[in-house]
């Protein structure tokens, strides 16, 4: 399932704040994005159509909740990035970031620990 960057803003609100009414979705995403009601309604409807979210009646009004787990979305997006830019290989991605972004000593330490854990089967 493909979730656009704009749709991901709606998903992020639902992942972090749980089921939300349309008004609560508006309050969460419209201001920072400068989106109007029709834009948010379109994004919500797209996500409903994709079955990424569900609408349930609760307390006399509809509440939206995520059907796609954030971890599944992150995994799919990460793999898509690897596939599109690095032929599905992790090493060129890490090399790219190491070359074009200064890694802090703490980041280097965590990467080394990750490699050690992978080598040790953890």
How are the secondary structure elements laid out?
Elements: H1 5-17, H2 22-33, H3 37-49, E1 53-58, E2 61-66, H4 70-86, H5 90-100, H6 105-119
Antiparallel strand pairs: 1-2
3D architecture notes:
The chain has 122 residues and is mostly helical. It folds into two domains: 5-66, Orthogonal Bundle (Arc Repressor Mutant, subunit A); 89-122, no CATH class. 66% of the residues lie in helices and 10% in strands. It has helices spanning 5-17, 22-33, 37-49, 70-86, 90-100, 105-119; strands at 53-58, 61-66. Strands 1-2 form a two-stranded antiparallel ribbon. The chain is elongated, with a radius of gyration of 19 Å. The protein starts with a helix and ends with a helix. The model has no long low-confidence stretch (mean pLDDT 92).
Largest sheet: 2 strands, antiparallel
- What is the arithmetic mean of pLDDT? 92
**What proportion of the residues form beta strands (DSSP E)?**
5-15%
Specify Rg, calculated over alpha carbons: 19 Å
In CATH, the homologous superfamily of the largest domain goes by the name Winged helix-like DNA-binding domain superfamily/Winged helix DNA-binding domain
Terminus-to-terminus distance: 30 Å
Number of domains: 2
Q: Give the SSE string.
A: HHHEEHHH
If you consult CATH, what is the topology of the largest domain? Arc Repressor Mutant, subunit A
Shape: elongated
The stretches of 5 or more residues where confidence is low (pLDDT under 50) are: none
Number of strands: 2
Number of helices: 6
Strand order of the largest sheet: 1-2
CATH architecture descriptor name of the largest domain: Orthogonal Bundle
Please give the share of residues in helix: 55-70%
- Going by helix content, strand content and strand pairing, the class is mainly alpha
**Text of the CATH class of the largest domain:** Mainly Alpha
């Amino acid at each position: 399932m493909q979730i656009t960057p704009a749709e991901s803003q709606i998903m992020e609100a639902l992942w972090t704040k749980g089921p939300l009414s349309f008004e609560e979705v508006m309050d969460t995403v419209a201001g920072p994005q400068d989106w109007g009601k029709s834009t948010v309604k379109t994004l919500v409807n797209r996500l409903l159509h994709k079955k990424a979210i569900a609408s349930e009646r609760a307390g006399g009004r509809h509440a939206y909740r995520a059907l796609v787990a954030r971890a599944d979305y992150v995994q799919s997006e990460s793999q898509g990035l690897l596939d599109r830019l690095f032929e599905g290989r992790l090493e060129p991605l890490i090399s790219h970031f190491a070359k074009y972004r200064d890694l802090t000593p703490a980041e280097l330490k965590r990467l080394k620990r990750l490699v050690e854990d992978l080598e040790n089967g953890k």
